[in-house]
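Narrative summary of target 7.
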Amino acid sequence: MKIIDTHVHVFPDALEPHAVEALTVPGRGAHIRGTLAAAQTRMQQLGVSSGWTIPVATRASQVATINEYALTQDRRYFVPFGAMHPDVEDAYGLLSTYKGLGLPGFKMHFDFQEVSPLDARMQPIFDAAVDFGLICYFHAGDDVGPHTCHGSPEVFAQVLDAYPGIRMVLAHLGGWRMWDDVEEHLVGRGDVYFDTAYCAGEMPVGQLLRIILNHGTDKVLFGTDSPWTDLAKEIRFFTARDELSDADKEALFHGNAERLLQS
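Modeled conformation, tokenized:
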């Protein structure tokens, strides 16, 4: 079965040891090095055809450098997303260039960036996402690092209501460790995708499957949060789920990601 991992973190070789060390917390360490080469090797070992690399800029000054690095990535193996930060000057103008550069969207992590999705600084970013058809890839819910939880399921539901047509992916099945709220505010909405990153083993299997099936298997993407999870284990977990049909697994592992990129 073709597999696309839509949630991969990579860092430039010179920065990787420092970045991984800074992001390592008790109970969560990297399973492979956080470099492009390590990610590509592991993907090829397991037959994963491509990975979406989703960066996070903790400061506005990092956005340009991160995007330059994204543009160096080999498109045979990676689909690089751009970075965005709420304090970037003329965010709307900058985002207008992303599609032309081959960046299908951008990633934001509101806790590391210390901003709410409802903050006024987000308006030009959301406007640009709608106007230029960009994919907004957002961390959602709690985090193993900062526990500020700016991006709750209820907040994202408000954003979706305010920006019809926005193309949004919420990581960690819509809200890490806030899955009851995901079921209350987001499950079943046709205007948002979830990814599966860092959920297997972190939540009851019954609830995980209930969210996937009730939200719709056409709106869920296979993602791992590499290098923080074991890619082989993640693949085995979902291929072993008898509750998902072969068609569901095809959609989860690659079909939904391909359709989202092409839409």
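The mean pLDDT is 96.
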